[in-house]
Amino acid sequence: MDSNVKSQAIPVKNTNNLFSLEDEKQKFLTEFPNFIKTSVLDEIRRDEYPNLDRQHHFYLDFTGAGLYALSQVRKHQELLQENVFGNPHSSNPTSLAMTRLVEKTRETVLRFFNADPKEYVCIFTNNASGALKLVGESYPFSADSQYLLTYDNHNSVNGIREFARAKGAKINYIPVLLPDLQMDQEELRCQLKQKDPDAHSLFAYPAQSNFSGVQHSLEWINIAKEAGWDVLLDVAAFVPTNRLDLQQYHPDFVTLSFYKIFGYPTGVGLLLARREALNKLQRPWFAGGTITVVSVKKDRFYLLKGAEGFEDGTLNFLSLPAIEIGLNHISAIGIEMIHQRVVDLTGWLIKKLASIRHSNGKNLISVYGPANMENRGGTIAMNFYDPDGHFIDHLRVEDRANKLGISLRTGCFCNPGDGEMALGLSAEELTSCFAIKTNFEYQDFRTCLAEKTTGAVRVSLGLVSNFEDVYQMVKLAESFVDLKYNEI
Is 414 part of the annotated catalytic residue set? Predict the structure, then answer.
């Protein structure tokens, strides 16, 4: 075992819920017979991700970041070692060599998402947040516009409301409903009908919530567009384990970070934009690489057309060939196989976690979102409760997980809408807390809501998750059975 990752023995109470690893796996394979078709992923894990098992990691944070294969790093390193690449903003030999790779990567991205290059433009950004900011700052909001979004958006989608507000646009949220945290479809249909037909209005939602794992129907894209809306689809949590076909669905803007899919490289995001929608955007500034001509004396500038007009400064160009390598890696495996594995493992894990009881019969865990695999992905948010119903601080769960070599995540995961709904935080409570001081820190938030939890525990499955990973998570959960919150 790696000296920096030491698993510590933690006593596990016998609840007669979890049997031995071997017995549980046999029962699992009987219940999920299609899982055996994904066995090649175990070989890929062994050969391409050997440090997971070598260092005794149980990685359950795929929504936080994907993992990279050894071959991805090796192929990228070989490419850099065997060539000379210059800044693509020129026409010298080394620059042209890099330009060819950049354009080849754009073609690979469009092909991966089955996006017609006549319809979509591939714009590289520093991450998904950068892609969202491009849309927000450039969208032609006006006093007659609306920005409509669901409660369960990531903060970077929520942040666009500040650009909309600055231009006088109306901002409306579609609630998510307990207990499954699905969006209020009746309210959404009502709001979509309220659009001013002469104004530009934007509807934004996640294909999959990064908090609850809820997957919203992609049919809402077509419904909203038929009502005259532009549609922004955040797919950062969705595309690592699900197919996105842009020949079937045609959102105006699609945003993601590549490291969420295949781990390496970080620092490269994507905005896929329909050419028609891109022409509506009005950039509030220009930068190196975005213009054809700029004059100081005459105070004029002319933006480049298409992707280059939105790629500020010099691209992270040496990293871009690694995007093509990563996408080819996923394509060779097959996203359908990854999806099957994640669905089976997540289905088993949710069922097991929900079945754990204290000796008095009360549930140990409350899972937020769907209780089964209908309309959900491989992300599970939850909280732990003691036999008296007191919540167990998620930081204590994380500390125990760390000692067992389990990588999970705690907090609200930059998704305040889902968090506030799931954790039962009322508008009145939030108003009281925010009135305490103007410079508000997270610890102030925790202190103000001392009687309630302000976060959750999140586990998420991905490309090379295996049964041992989810089994270990259930073992961790069972170690809290019958413990009082102040005894941990």
Answer: yes
